[in-house]
Amino acid sequence: MSGTWILPDDLEIPSRPDFFPEPGGALPQHWAKCFGCGDEQPTGLAMHFTATEGIEVVGQLTVASRYQGGPGVIHGGILTTAFDETQGMACMVLGTPVVTGHLQIDFARPIPLGSVLEFRARIDGTIRRKVYASSEARIVEGPAASNEVVATSRGLFLRIKPEHFTPMAEFVDGVPTMPNFGNSTL
After folding, report:
1. What's the gap between Cα 87 and its chain centre?
2. Burial profile 56-68: b = 16 or more Cβ within 10 angstroms, e = fewer
C-alpha cells in the first residue's frame, strides 16, 4: 500500500452483528441492476460474495476477455470497480447503505485474462458516518494462480439514508434498497 493512507486514531471497530450471514453464507446483492453484483445487469461483473469469520467478506471475479485493457490483461478500471464493490459489500455489516467517498488502488502486477480473482475486504473502523475499509486480490485460478497479492485497495465510504437515491428514480427503473440487515441508523 502507498504510504499516503493513514487511518485516524479514534476509529471504532464494529463487531459482527446478529443479522450478518454466518461464515460461508451468501451476502444478498444490494441492487439487482448494480454493475458490480446485480443479477439484472447483463453487461456487469456478476460478482457474488460470502461472509467469513469476523466482519470480512470474500468475492470472486472471472476476468473475461471483455474486461481487457492492455493486451491480454484486465483493464485497471474493471479491477477498480471490483474493489469498490467488494469494500462496499463489506460495509453491509453496518446495516446501512454506503457510497464511496475515496478509493485508492495499488496495482502490484498484471492480471491475465482468464484468471479468477478472489477479493477479501474488511472494515478497518468507523467514525460517525465515515467507514474505512481495505481489501486485497489474489489470482486463485488461471494462468498465473498463486497466493501472491496482485492488487490492494483502501477506501473511505460514507453512510447514507436510503432516500439518498430517490432523486435518481426518474433515470432508472427502480431504486436501490438495502437488504434488511437489522435496524441500524445513522
Report:
1. 3
2. bbbbbbebeeebe
- Encode the chain (186 residues) as per-residue pLDDT tens digits: 455 778 888 999 988 888 888 999 999 887 788 888 888 888 999 999 999 988 899 999 999 999 999 999 999 999 999 999 999 999 988 888 899 999 999 999 999 999 999 999 999 999 999 999 999 999 999 989 999 999 999 999 999 887 776 767 666 665 555 555 444 444
Residues 55, 92: Cα–Cα separation, whole Å: 9
Residue ranges of domains in the chain, CATH in brackets: 48-171 (3.10.129.10)
Collect contacts of 166-172 with beta carbons under 8 A, ≥24 apart: 172/33
CA–CA dist 71, 92 (Å, integer): 36
- Residues forming the active site: 84
Q: What is the pTM of this model?
A: 0.88
DSSP 174: S
Q: Which of 117, 179, 124 is nearest to 145 (CA)?
A: 117
